[in-house]
Structure formats: C-alpha cells, structure tokens
Design goal:
It comes from Ilex paraguariensis (yerba mate). This protein is an alpha/beta fold and 379 residues long. The chain has helices at residues 65-75, 99-108, 119-129, 146-151, 188-199, 222-230, 250-260, 281-292, 327-333, 341-351, 365-378, and strands at 55-59, 79-84, 110-113, 133-136, 157-161, 204-209, 211-213, 235-238, 244-245, 247-249, 269-273, 279-280, 299-302. Strands 3-2-1-4-5-6-11 form a 7-stranded parallel sheet, sandwiched between helices.
Amino acid sequence: MTSLVRVQHKQPSCSLLPSSLSDFNGVRLTTSIQYKRKVWQTKGALHVSASSAKKILIMGGTRFIGIFLSRLLVKEGHQVTLFTRGKAPITQQLPGESETDYADFSSKILHLKGDRKDFEFVKSSLSAQGFDVVYDINGREADEVEPILEALPKLEQYIYCSSAGVYLKSDLLPHFEVDAVDPKSRHKGKLETESLLESRDVNWTSLRPVYIYGPLNYNPVEEWFFHRLKAGRPIPIPNSGMQITQLGHVKDLASAFVKVLCNEKASKQVFNISGEKYVTFDGLARACAKAAGFPEPEIIHYNPKEFDFGKKKAFPFRDQHFFASVDKAKSVLGLKPEFDLVEGLADSYNLDFGRGTYRKEADFSTDDIVLSKSLVLQS
C-alpha cells in the first residue's frame, strides 16, 4: 500500500512567465472572425474550491509531460501521487535542476504501482486512497477511465490529455475546439474518452495539444532534425516543404494543465494548447539549426509517392497543414506561452540532445533512399 507523505500546504497559484518574441520565420494567422462564435461560455460548471492544496493523482507521470507537470504541482503545495507500472524510475533529476530542488521534489512525490488495465486493482486502490483531482496523461481508451470514475465518486475534477489529432481533416484552418472531429482517427480513443466524460456527472477538462516538443521528448520531433544537423546531412522534407504545422513546448503545456486546476472557467471545457505561431516544415528545419547553433541546412524536397520506405517512417510529421487556434486558452485561461519556437528548441537542445542524450539512435536509411535518387536525377 502506498504510504502518504505530509506536505506543507499553501495557497495554489497559477502564474506564468511572460513570453519573449521571436523574429523567426513563422506564421501568425488572424482569426478574429471566429470570436463571433459563442463557444467559450461555461455551461453547467461545477464548483471547485481552490482554497486548499489538493490530493492529486497523475495517471502516468514518469516519461515526458508528467515529469514537468508533477514538479509544478508539488511546488504549488499539492500532494501528488503517480500511478505507473513501476518500470521506469519514479523520479529523475532533470538537466539543470539543482540537487536541492530535486531532493525536495523526490521526497514529496508518492507512487502507486499498478497496471491501469487491471480495472479491479484500479478501483480498489484508488477508492482506498481517495483523490480530489485526477490528471490523466496516458489514457488512450474510454474503458480505462470508467474504473477511475467509479472509484472516486466525490472527485472534484478530471483533467484529461487529449490530442488535436481528433479533428477531422479540413481545408479550413486553424482547428477550433468546436470544429468537426474524426471518429475514425488514430486518436479515436481519446475522442471517445472526452465523450464519456461529457456524459457523466463529473467536472472535467480536456486539453488538446498539437505537436509537443522539449527536453526528454520520446517522440522524434525535434530530435529527428537534430540528428541530421549534427551529422551535417541534408534534410529530406516531403513535397514543397511549405506545409504549415505547429509545436508547443512541454513546459508550456504543463503550465496549461496547472492553469485549469480549480478553475471554474475550465469546467466541462476543451482547450487547444500549443505555441502561438505556426511554422512551415522548411522553416522548422531552419529553426532547429538556428536554435542549436548549426549552419543553415541543405533541404531536399521529394515526392513520397515515388518511394517505398516499407514500414519505416521517413518524416516525423503529418504531410499536410495541421495547426490549431489557441485563442480560447489565451482568452479564458489567460495562457501566455513562455517559449517562442526558437527559444523552445534551444531549451530542448541545450538540456537534452546537446548534452549527448536522446531517445532513439539516428537512422538515415530512408534519407539515403531519397538522396540516392536525388543524386541520379541531378546527374
């Protein structure tokens, strides 16, 4: 059974650092026409008290988002328990984190070991502990949420990490929270989870990130570019390279998760969370180079339909325009990202890849297929 640690209670606060501006090549689209939609009003909001520290459960919390979120919550004075399978270290010292800060954090974090797919264990262990708030970081299917709700009938708030990948592909962008969703997307489980939460008598909030980046990122987003820049290789980008996408720093996402805690304006609401600016694929390659101090890269464009890469993924992003408006989060939550794109990529590089740490070894096999054909065509 998990033992609880007594922590010092203090008044939670949700302040964010001011954002700095970047002159990097990005695209900020004007979407003021969308303000005519009355979609940000909270209906049927449940009261959540912010007058005391909360007993918080994080489902997950040892890989990426949860590592930064749990630190913010502990600093706010909340009692935080991580529910994981125990296969990864429960805490780890972050690059640049002082010994004192790490020791303070690790002494306060609690752990509940188990498999969330073992529904009977989830119900018995959570009901025995009792929690005020659940942050569900790693939930993928709706049936994984049912036992948590059953175990915690007095739950004050269920905060869910969804994905902007639930939106139906459209020619009209950016995606807004009221836009059509795709029930057949690979994120359909997250969409079904949102529907489940909406159908139950529970106070819930769902955040939909676009692409997340930052130190400890286990998805090959910025790391894919850093590997090629470090090796001095050309960067192969599908089609024109003018496809527009969007990235949000993990620390800004963690701050957004704190912003919705005990926030009545966030009750039964969905929020897109990402960086304020959009960027092209080519622009992202140049941004990674600028952030890491590499020369401007050589970019090779190719038609992916002309190649057979087998089961390997040749490029880490959807080959399409894909970005979402964060106006609602800015207006309702007062969210202001700390990082612009180049600053955020520099933070990721300096605290992670630049120190020689990365999640996956470099694999240039698909690059070589593209480059070998490119050389033949040039000759």
